[in-house]
Amino acid sequence: MDVDRYIAAHRATWNRLDELVGMARVTPGRLSLTETEELLRLYQLTSAHLSHVRTHHRDRALIGGLSSRVAAARQVIYGRRGRAQRVVVSFFTVGFPLAVTRAWRAIAFSALLFFGSALATGLWFNNSPQALDVTVSPEQQELIAGHEFEDYYSSQGAGVFAAQVQTNNIQVSLLALAGGATAGVLTAAVLVINGFSIGVVGALMHQNGAAGTFWGLILPHGLLEISAIVVAGAVGLKLGWAVIAPGEDRSRGDAVVEEARHGVTIVVGLALWFVVAGFIEALVTPSGLPTAIRIGIGALALAAAIAHVLAFGPAALAASRAGAGTDPWEVEKADLARAGSPPVRHPQPAAGP
Length: 353
Description:
Elements: H1 3-26, H2 33-56, H3 60-102, H4 104-127, H5 129-135, H6 138-152, H7 158-178, H8 185-207, H9 211-244, H10 252-284, H11 291-322, H12 328-339
Helix pairs in contact: 1-2, 1-3, 2-3, 3-10, 3-11, 3-12, 4-5, 4-8, 4-9, 7-8, 7-9, 7-10, 8-9, 9-10, 9-11, 10-11
């Protein structure tokens, strides 16, 4: 087959590819799912044509034209993937740390509710064994301190246990967020009740001579896990405060929507904290490693989470204030919305005809 016949046979394919690339360039993100799939198919087909021409015809003009078409289509396809990747990076370097930094006052209050409840409960029951006996029977205390508390962490396979812990913790964070709709009352209750539970168990273990077991098992995963719960609680408290006192410059509805948006950003980021804490709880907490090493792993995980927020949060907050209130994370998401289209995979050129 000579070059002219080859061109005539495939001209319609190349012209359609040019048309789709032009549409994508003029109105990014406006291609339908069907058109996007067609763009990918024609890109693969034209790549195969280019490979065939280079091997069998070696016509410089045709090779140059097909190379330009393939390059233009690749720029459109890979450019979209690049925008999506930038938004993911922006979430972890701007969106999440910025939202957490903005919520520092609420985080401090959330920590006060949780740790204040845990400390007060622990001190009360530790200094009043009679009250502890009323809450948890002496027989049950012996079982918990003797083996049940420790057995809990190795009662199931690591994978199943990690999944259950992660799911439960994420549900707690979502409950804390939803609790904001009750003016923060439910969120505060979740924090106080969880703190109370920690305090009771801590006092129980101390009273029964198992303090080392308690701290050796609770700290490796608890450092990050409890911190995540506290931050999640702050989300609900901020949302609740928006319901109570939206401010003079915004309506109650606008305040709730804004805080809910920031809250969702935080909860999505906290999911990673909960996943890491879940794996530590399943793999490190019940392991045979020395207690100091297990606690050290938990401390490193918490330090990494804090360092991540401190490394990006204050700078993002300063940039937001310098931009007269413009949120760089919201700008990034808006850019994606304008440029977005259904995500596409990296295509591989098909084999030659």
